[in-house]
Amino acid sequence: MVHFSILALATSLLVPGVLTAPAAEPAVAIQRRFDGTAFNNWSEGGSNIRCVNGPGGSFTANWNSKGGFVCGKGWNGQGARSITFTGTYNATGPGYLSIYGWTTNPLIEYYIVENHADLAPNEPWTLKGNVTSDGGTYDIYTATRINQPSIVGTATFQQFWSVRREKRTGGTVTTPTHFAAWKALGMNLGTYNSVIVAVEGYTAKGGSGSSGSASITVQ
């Protein structure tokens, strides 16, 4: 389970390039765009993390760190849609390649994990069921984050997870299928805040960090 979250939605336009977050002051940069090219780059103070905003729906990530980060591209104010992406992903340690987003009222952080390295080491996830979608089977989990950073500040909130058994780095993800499966299990989302194709790495409770590289294009 992730030990960090996107803290806020900035309204400034980010030009293509590299955003580096200082250790003492996590940074957020999001383009307020609705066409799949909104770039999100957040770090909680790790070193050797480099996320680069490319043209259109493309971005790259390279990291070797014990700090946490999330970077990716997608849509603001949306969530229920089909998302197609391609690329490469190679990682070790805790981390994911996922469809990632938030809702408000209720405040939910959600993941549809397409590929991953170490999956939630030592984390208290609760298995709720599974769903078949887009040629694969996903196990559904919930988790609770207590007094942790969120898009509305420090808060207690639920995380919803769909984790694909057949790992892949590319394809189409039909998010409404997951949302309907979650709802049938009593896992209710709120108002969509954002959804992105995200690469994420973090430090596990045991202290191990992550490393890897990714090059992703959102169609």
TrEMBL record:
SUPFAM superfamilies (alphabetical): Concanavalin A-like lectins/glucanases (SSF49899)
Q: Name one GO molecular function term.
A: endo-1,4-beta-xylanase activity
Tell me one GO biological process term.
xylan catabolic process
Where would one find the signal peptide in this protein?
1-20
Q: What keywords appear on the UniProt entry?
A: Carbohydrate metabolism, Glycosidase, Hydrolase, Polysaccharide degradation, Signal, Xylan degradation
| Protein name from the UniProt record | Endo-1,4-beta-xylanase
Q: Which InterPro entries does the entry link to?
A: ConA-like_dom_sf, GH11/12, GH11_AS_1, GH11_dom, Glyco_hydro_11
Q: Which Pfam families match?
A: Glyco_hydro_11
What PANTHER family does the annotation carry? ENDO-1,4-BETA-XYLANASE A-RELATED
Do the record's keywords include Signal? yes
- Gene3D superfamilies of this UniProt entry? 2.60.120.180
What's the EC number here?
3.2.1.8
For this protein, what reaction is catalysed?
Endohydrolysis of (1->4)-beta-D-xylosidic linkages in xylans
Annotated metabolic or biological route of this protein: Glycan degradation; xylan degradation
Q: Which family does it belong to?
A: Belongs to the glycosyl hydrolase 11 (cellulase G) family.
Enzyme class of the recorded protein, top EC level: hydrolase
Give the positions the UniProt entry annotates as the active site: E109, E200
Domain GH11 intervals = 25-213
